[in-house]
TrEMBL record:
<dbReference type="GO" id="GO:0008171">
    <property type="term" value="F:O-methyltransferase activity"/>
</dbReference>
<protein>
    <submittedName>
        <fullName>O-methyltransferase</fullName>
    </submittedName>
</protein>
<keyword id="KW-0808">Transferase</keyword>
<dbReference type="InterPro" id="IPR029063">
    <property type="entry name" value="SAM-dependent_MTases_sf"/>
</dbReference>
<keyword id="KW-0489">Methyltransferase</keyword>
<dbReference type="InterPro" id="IPR002935">
    <property type="entry name" value="SAM_O-MeTrfase"/>
</dbReference>
<dbReference type="Pfam" id="PF01596">
    <property type="entry name" value="Methyltransf_3"/>
</dbReference>
<dbReference type="GO" id="GO:0032259">
    <property type="term" value="P:methylation"/>
</dbReference>
<keyword id="KW-0949">S-adenosyl-L-methionine</keyword>
Amino acid sequence: MGWKQRLPFLRWSMVRMAVAMPGFLKTGQIGDGREEATARYVEANARRNDVDHVLDTIDEFAREKSMLMNVGDEKGALLDAAVRRADATLALELGTYCGYGAMRIARAAPDAKVFSVEFAAANAAIARRIWAHAGLADRITCVVGTLGDGGTTMDALAKSGFAAGTLDLLFIDHDKSAYLADLLGILERGWLHTGSIVVADNVRVPGAPKYRAYMREQQGKLFDTVEHATHVEYQTLLSDLVLESDYLGP
């Protein structure tokens, strides 16, 4: 386990991803089939019902085949530690993609119910295939939608058990421009409790400046935040930030 040191160079699949970013924001996929290829690679190469091996296989695909927009192994270790520290029984991820982050959460919190919100139905289907292969289909639920859809998705989560003070761990890894608005929506619902932990990926690259500014403004008030200096997933050329914020209560 643990992340593997990589050479500091930009791979073509990462360049392709950067070029495809406008389309990704609309569809949730890069456009070259790498998401479907990830599911096929897992089904062909990862041991069934072995979460560790499924995660390692996705990391292998992302390093050796095509770059993926998931938290990755280096930053994933930070997420793992936050999940364990939260002692989570209910966790919410914003941004499913291919299901990698939700699996890390489920592995680190074996007694937790994990929900993941994904706006692209195609990604949700891929993630569910991978979760089934890993033996986690009964522990992770994907809700197709967005928190900014006028309340439909949040109402669906409420019907699934989300209520005041129930959410232990929130992992934000979706549309960077929606980080702050979606956090504020969750705060308005009162789902967090004192001691809940919020983890946000890619705060430097591609960047979530409004979210970062908010956490700095709320330091010692609503949140106690640590900024983890790290790297963009699966390479060491680009630095990134993961913010880990303890909710101090209203």
